[in-house]
Specification:
Layout: H1 6-9, H2 16-38, E1 47-48, E2 67-71, H3 97-110, H4 121-125, E3 128-132, E4 137-138, H5 150-163, E5 169-173, H6 175-178, E6 190-192, H7 209-219
Parallel strand pairs: 2-3, 2-5, 5-6
Antiparallel strand pairs: 1-4
Helix pairs in contact: 2-5
Length: 233
């Protein structure tokens, strides 16, 4: 997908199940964002993630969402952003600092060895919706697209999930994610500091979000999530 065509093509890459959830309002927002990206051709090569991955999180159908993990915006490092919040490609090393802390907490919480990779796509395949509030940025410029309109779209997505009526566990790391709490109604959620090195030791480390999520799922009569990142199913 050439970036110069995003105004036209971005709305068409959203899976149909999500189109039904966000409706014309969501598609109009996507089109507007794409058109704004098209207006800056000099920055085309710097937009991350790659165009075909911008909406990758939405490969998880809304009816399959069991857990929502909210990120801020994509990693700004070259080749780091995948379209899934906090995840990197299977062969990417070294890991971004926030991901290093997530991996450490994962291992301590669920008692599994640290995987050799930082690819969280298995979680996505098993119903963890890894959603950044802002779905693009520029390489080397974290937060460059926070005024582009992405939060309007992702807020609409979250409202639609909640209004859909099926149960899921929101995990909100950091202040920006916790701003979404009013959209989540009565859903029991997990909140802590962000896994960034600037804040991880102020409440993220030791917060046990993965086992706590499973406890909430089981309390609602649902199967716990298998968090094991070394499995390839």
């Amino acid at each position: 997908m050439p970036l110069s065509a995003l105004g036209e093509l971005l709305p068409t890459t959203l899976p149909e199940s999500w189109v039904q959830l966000v409706g014309d309002e969501g598609l109009d927002i996507l089109q507007t964002i794409g058109q704004r990206l098209d207006q800056n051709p000099s920055q085309t090569a710097l937009v991350t993630p790659l165009p075909e991955n911008i909406l990758k999180a939405f490969a998880t159908p809304p009816e399959n969402v069991r857990v929502l993990i909210v990120g801020q915006d994509p990693y700004p490092g070259v080749g780091h952003a995948t379209g899934l919040a906090f995840s990197v490609g299977h062969k990417v090393h070294p890991f971004p600092p926030s991901l290093r802390n997530i991996r450490t907490e994962y291992s301590a919480d669920v008692g599994l060895p640290l995987p050799s990779h930082g690819d969280l796509s298995r979680w996505s395949r098993h119903g963890v919706f890894l959603l950044n509030r802002h779905l693009t940025t520029l390489v080397g410029s974290p937060g460059a697209h926070r005024a582009l309109g992405w939060s309007r779209f992702t807020d609409l997505v979250i409202r639609g999930l909640v209004q859909g009526g099926h149960f899921f566990v929101p995990i909100l790391w950091g202040r920006q994610a916790q701003e979404l709490a009013p959209l989540l109604g009565s859903l029991q959620r997990i909140e802590s500091a962000h896994p960034s090195p600037l804040s991880a030791r102020r409440g993220f480390c030791g917060s046990r979000p993965f086992s706590r999520t499973n406890h909430i799922l089981e309390e609602h009569g649902l199967n716990p999530l298998d968090w094991d990142l070394d499995k390839d199913d």
